[in-house]
Amino acid sequence: MRVGCLVDEQAGSLCYESFMNRIKFHVKKGDQVEVITGNFRGSSGKVLEVLPKKQRVLIEGVRIIKKHLRKSQDNPSGKIAEREGPIHISNVKLIERERKADKSAKKEKKPAKKAEKKAA
Hints:
Layout: E1 2-8, E2 12-19, E3 22-24, E4 32-35, E5 44-51, E6 56-59, E7 64-69, E8 79-84, E9 86-88, E10 92-96, H1 101-119
Antiparallel strand pairs: 1-2, 2-3, 4-5, 4-10, 5-6, 6-9, 7-8
């Protein structure tokens, strides 16, 4: 594993952990986060998507932008769609990690199956 820092003139620097070409950040999809700086400071929500190459995240209900869609078969009269816009990952603080209860349930089932196979 390699640890380093990305240096960008506009964004400053951001430290990351890299294994091969994968960049790992402090938040993941599904985590509960709070915006700590910028125009949306104080707002919180669930992470919908992490964009590692751009160092940005999409947070549910934060930075709602209006996207104008042209006329098409789906939208015969056009449409103004509202969706979340990206926020830089350094402006976000982790509040609560997403719990995965399914993992503990799967671990309990697997040893039971192995015991049944040995008995047969």
